[in-house]
Amino acid sequence: MGLNRPEKRNAFNDTLIKSIEKVFDNLPQDVKCIIIYGIGKHFSAGLDLSELTQLDVVEGLYHSRMWHSVMDKIQFGKVPVIAALHGATVGGGLEVATACHLRVADSSAFFALPEGQRGIFVGGGASVRLPKLIGMARMADMMLTGRVFTATEGEQIGLVNYMVDANKALEKCEELAKKIISNAEITNYAVMHILPRITDSNQSEGLLMESLIAAITSSSPEAKQRLNDFLEGRGKKVGE
Length: 240
Ligand code: 1HE
Description:
It contains 12 helices and 8 strands. By secondary structure, it is of the alpha/beta class. 3-methylmercaptopropionate-CoA (MMPA-CoA) binds at residues 8-9, 11, 41-42, 45-50, 67, 88, 90-92, 95, 114-115, 118, 122-124.
C-alpha cells in the first residue's frame, strides 16, 4: 500500500489517513500480508498541520480518536503489516510505522517527533506504542529536544527491525512477507493479537493467556502436520 501524496511529503490529511482505514476494512481474502511504503522522497511528514489549525478542543479529541481507531485497524487487523521506511518518518508517520508489526528502514530514513516543537502532543498512539519499542526516556528526548534518530540509530534502539541500503526497503519487506505468509495463520494471529495483550497484562494473566493460545495452536491439524513434517525429515531446520 503506497502513501501517495508526495507533493506534501505524504503528510496525512483526513483523506489519506481514512484511505488506510478503507484498505483494512475491505481487505480481500487472499491478501495475507501488507507492506506500507511512501511514494516520493519520504515515508511521511506526519499529520498535515493545516488540518489542526481548524480544530477546537472537542474536534481535536475526536480527531485523535479517529487516528487511534485507524492505527488499531493496522495493528489488530487480519494480516501482519510491514512498514518500508525511507526519508522522513516523523510525527504521525512514525505513529503509523509503530502500529505496524515490523519496520524495515533504508539508510535514508530518519525519525523524529516534531510535535514537541509545534506546541502540540502526539495524538496517533505514539505515547503508548513508541515507548514499548524504544523506552519512555528516548521518546521524551525526541519531544523535548527535537532529537532526530538516523536509520542506524533506529536499528540500535529497537525502533527498526532491519536496516538496509538505500532503496532496498521494499525488496527486504517482500522477502520478509514471504516468510510470514508461510506460517500457520493461527500463529500469525497469536503474534498480532495475543502477544501484545500478554505484554500489556500482569504476569499471572499473561501466563494464562500464553497457555491458552499455546494449547489452541498446538491442537490444530495444521500444527500436527507441521510437527510431523519436521519429525519425519520434511520440515525446514532453523534458519532455512
Ligand atoms: C507539509 C507537512 C506537514 C511538509 N503538514 N504540509 N510534521 C512536521 O512537523 C514535519 C514538517 N515537515 C518537514 O519538516 C519537512 O517537510 C520534511 C523534513 C518532512 C521534508 O522536507 P522537504 O524539504 O523534502 O519538503 P518541504 O519543502 O518542507 O515540503 C514540501 C511541501 O510539503 C511544502 O508545501 P508547499 O505547498 O510549500 O510545497 C510543505 O509545507 C508541505 N509539508 N510537511 C503540512 N506535516 C496524529 S497527530 C500527529 C501529529 C504530527 O504528526 S505533528 C508533526 C508534523
